[in-house]
């Protein structure tokens, strides 16, 4: 009987920790998506890095990809990528492993799971969209019009905030799934432009 009580106690503690972790993640996500950057003294690049970090957790890749480190690729080093690496290093809710790689050509993006194209590398955007289409690869960029052109996620500066635009056609074509938390705060687009 004593062992049963201890087991129940242990299960209650585990469930409590799980609820706390879920609540902390939800609260953090809420702050990232809704809190104006100037209110938390966060630079725009750091805000974009926070989004990129949360996409690791709010996007589901097909089974098999999540069993190994996610290969994160970018065409060049930027303040956003530096901020992302620092953020991942200190993340309390890290539930993934990531390998960072630089790609020299759009074709190399096919070897990645997650590709971020900074606005400085805009020449890469359309070729990367074309070469990754139909593959389980998350493409993200802060280039204007990226989502309407077929990229999966666009980070768009709107006034004092950064909005998340998700191309639902591209998401489905890549075989990826977005969590309900992400979809509830994102602006949904289609490859034809506008809302799906």
UniProtKB/TrEMBL annotation:
Domain of life of the source: Bacteria
InterPro entries: YfiR/HmsC-like
Pfam families tied to this protein: DUF4154
Name this polypeptide is given: YfiR family protein
Protein species of origin: Candidatus Seongchinamella marina
